[in-house]
Amino acid sequence: MWPFAVQASLVPGQTFLEKFKLLAAWGYDGIEISGADLLQHADALQKAAATYPVRLTSACAGFEGWLVDRNPRARRLAIEQIKAMLAVGADLGIAGLISPAAYGINAREVLPPYRNAFTLDEDRQLLIEGLTEIVESAARTGGTLLLEPLNRYVDRVLNTVAEAVTVVKAVDSPHLKVVPDIFHMNIEESNLSASLREAAPFIGHVHLSDSNRRLPGHGHVDWRAVFATLHDVGYNGVMAIECRIDGDPREALPRTLGFLREKAEAVGSN
Ligand code: LER
Ligand code: MN
User: Fold this and answer.
1) Average pLDDT over residues 137-149
2) Which of 17, 61, 211, 268 is most solvent-facing, going by the fewest CB within 10 Å?
3) Whose CA is nearest to atom 2 of ligand 1?
């Protein structure tokens, strides 16, 4: 059975101890925090993880700037903070830190007569340079950067899982993997299962949300097909819920774990 985790911001509670306690009571395996928590709350996280049988599985973004940022200062901030977060994350035993190329930057195709200031190739080259510096640091400190492609409405640099894999291959380091997010994939991929299968050796983490960014089971993703493919290719890493929750999370999150476990068992992952 895959370890199932939930992003910390979705779990009720004022403190990590309260959030870990709820996740443990519901039977979740892990929690995904923000990268900023690694730098600011490492002690509280360690205490919570030692108190409850819930693993600190992963961290998602939370740094300033982006890896593809035309402001050199902002880009430098992102690179330095990511390096620091990977080092702390490695000490805490997390699977990795998730980062998209950028979030909320210009569209891939702007309407004429407007033009993007930089080509996609130039943006990807900048990304590869930043990632190369990061994996060199991670080779010394430990830690894995988990590169996440996002849909076209929020990032133009990497939209499909295959595009992210191309960048990962170019950087060529065991400290760099890909995060398929099922919500973004539903928008960008022609065939979710085929894309997951092709990317299989490079997958380091999975983000779970349905076609409408709601909890798994609330949209039209074929979860059985997704899980069957991940099982078939031998993926055994973490699956983390990242979405919007309608209603009370104290009711919705335990119910969703039941849904996910049922789907996992149906494809023979137990
Ligand atoms: C944003 O849409 C998203 O999916 C996050 O995981 C970004 O890292
Ligand atoms: Mn995501």
Assistant:
1) 98
2) 268
3) 150
